[in-house]
Structure formats: C-alpha cells, structure tokens
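User: What would this chain look like folded?
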Amino acid sequence: MKQFDVVVIGAGPGGYVAAIRAAQLGMKVACIEKAQTLGGTCLNVGCIPSKTLLQSTRYWEWLEKESKGLGIEYNEIKVNFETMMQRKAKVVFSLTEGITGLFKKNKVESIRGTAKFVDSHLVEVTDNGRIEKIKGNYFILATGSEAVALPFLAFDEKKIISSTGALSLEKVPKQMAVIGAGAIGVEMASIYRRLGTQVHIIERAEEICLAMDPTIRKLLLRGLKQQGIKFHLSAHLHSAKYEREGVTIEFEEGGERKNLHTDLLLVAVGRKPHTEGLGLEQIGIKKSSRGTLNIDNFFRTSLPHIFAIGDIVDGPMLAHKASDEGMAVAESIAGKAAYVNYMALPQVVYTHPEAAAVGLNEPEAREAGLEVMVGTAFFKGNARARCMGESEGIVKIIGDKKSERVVGLHILGSHASEMIEEGALALQKKVTLEDIARLPHSHPTLTEAIKEAAMDALGYAMH
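Assistant: Here's the prediction, encoded as structure tokens.
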C-alpha cells in the first residue's frame, strides 16, 4: 500500500495544478486519473480542441471572405477537414504530454485508474482489473463534470451528440441543430457554420449567453445572425426522432409547432458534476440539491481532510476557476493563507468577435444597490481595430459612483479574451475608473478602448 501526504483525484485543470502546487510546497503527492491522458475535459475534449478548431476555421473564413479587402489575392483556397482535425489532435497531444512532463519534474506520482473510497483515508484504484490501494492524509477531489443529456434523448455521439462528439466528427455535416445557446452552443455553431454547415440554434431563453452583459449579448446575437446562424429563441423542444438520414426534431416557437430535419443534433444544455462511483456517500460527504459537493470557505467538505474544487462545487464551470481553486487548496493544506477572488474571475465566449466579462454586469450592479457609472467605447473608433479590419464590437465598463471603483468590464471584440484581464486586475486591486483613464496605454492598441470607456464613464471621452 502506498501512502501520500496529498492524493488528488482527477487530473484536469484543477487537479493537476493542485497536485503540482502541493508537490512544490514539499508534500508527497499522487494524482489519480481514470482517462488515458492527463488534462481532463478541458484539454482533451473541451477548451483546447474547440479553440483549435475555432482558430482554424476563423483563418479559413478570413481568407475566404475578408483577405481580399486587405489586398491579399489568391487563385484557389480550400478546407482540408481531415488535416484540420489532425492539427487539433497534435495540439491536444503536445499539451497532455506537457502535463506528464510537469508531473515528472515536480515528482508527482501519476496513477492510472478509477478511485473509490474504502474509508475516509483510503481509496482503491481499479485499472483493467488491477486494484491498488492508496492512502492519503489529505484528498483533493477534482473529478470535473460531464455533458447533460436531454431526459428523453441519450447521447449516441453519432446523430445525437455532445460537445465531445462535435469535436470528433469525421466529416462536415450539411445541417446541424444545436440545443442551447450558451458558450458551448454558439462556439460549436460557429465552427461548423464557417465550414458551410447550415446551423440552427434552439434556446428556451429569450437571449443567448446569459452570463454576459445585456448590451454584449444583444450585439453578439446580431453578429452571429449576420454570419448565418439561425436562432430560435424562447423555443421549447418537444421531441426528437431518429430517421434513416439524420434526426427530426419538433419544437415550439412563438406559439407555433415546427419540425426541423437535421443531420446531427448537438445537445449543449449544460454540464453536471461528475461524482458518481467515488463512494462519497459511504464516508459521509454531503451533496447539495444541485449535485455539487458542499464545502466551506476553505474548500473543505463535511470531512475536513477532504477538499473539493472545480466543476463539482458551486460556481461557474470554468477551467481557470478550477486551477485557481486547486492552487488555493494546496497552499491551504501547506498552512499558507490562500483565497480565490471570484469577483475577478473572467468568462469568455470564443466566437468572432469574442465576448468577455468580469465582475458585475449593469443589471447586477443596480440590483446590488450601487449607483452605477457606465462608460462605453466602440471599436469602430479604435485605430488598431481599424488597422486590423476588426472594428466590430464595444467595451463597456461599470463603476460604483460612490467610490469610483471598477465593478465590471464587458467586451465584445477581436481578442476580447486577451483584454479582459485588465478588468480582472482592476477588480483584484480595487482600481478606480480614474486609475484606468490615467493609465498610459500603447498606441495603437485595442486596449485603448478600455481607457476610452473609463474616460466616457467619467464624462470626458475623446473619441
């Protein structure tokens, strides 16, 4: 029987970071992962493969539709979908191998198999019939989440697919229907729409990407419609039937029943915590009504030596949230002061243009009782955006009038994912609108729009 100071279950963005940080702090660490590769959903079948395909298809669309306006001409260009998918696999492989190398460098023992608690300090790890017992002083649960299927429609990953299936197609479909207009739904829709697929998105809510500020999501919806994605909002799915050549779905929109035949049906209605099979009930670890594990402010479950992080606890299911929590838990076990500032946690939708948010949106700020200061800056007035041919979008900054502190930043535009961190740092360090307005920004840069928005909130915008 092997014994460790810390045993991490799950090697996704939360688990592998927790394991490495604990090892850096001098602890003997094991990380148990049931999959064949490290990195979890994010690296293998989520964030990384989807962003790789989004980038490839964006390059294709730019060459096909926009490059000639910049003086770039060519005789013929075409998509090789097989090569595109091979590149995706290479990117994933290089990053998973990178984690393997980091484990070796930091002396984290990687154990393959499925873990189940025997008692609160002992797990059995099963791998192809082989059982190994692992004992730990502390455990960090980081088992992630899985796609939610519709109650009447199980995934077969052939015609009824999850995001995992959507990232592993062998050919580009002619038609695709997507249930759900959150980040996953609109990103997958964008990938295949660029490749020529006719895409319909069916969403129960009145708007898309509800985590975004209303201004951002309205402009994003308009842009995605202009790109050719068909939206059915405030719509209710009634049924889906397998046909010989695809799937026929029945839904209601505006009081009218409609039928839609499609090659593939992508269900992107959310994800749920993956905690089954761990034996948590028998050692007394409690779950919430949502299926997440109950934890305190230090990520401790009902057993103080067992911690939980990432998608299996409350909060947005984001890889960087899990990583920050993993680092905080490792440092907490080592006796260090550690925390995660959830107010400074950015969220991104990787469409084109990208949408990004951090902190409170305008309705949330008003509901919190703040007297808000709002500033905006459109990228059409930004010199760098004009140079790049990427002038679509807006920056919106929210401040508290009493303190003038920044309480939210919202961006729709090219490279929004790279700019939103200025807002995250502003929230982390309690920066004021005046601080941003007076901070020199290189010219010409897209981030000048953040400065301009802060100046607008203060009443002296220049452009």
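Residues 344-458 form a domain with the Enolase-like; domain 1 fold (CATH 3.30.390.30). If you want, I can go into more detail on any region.
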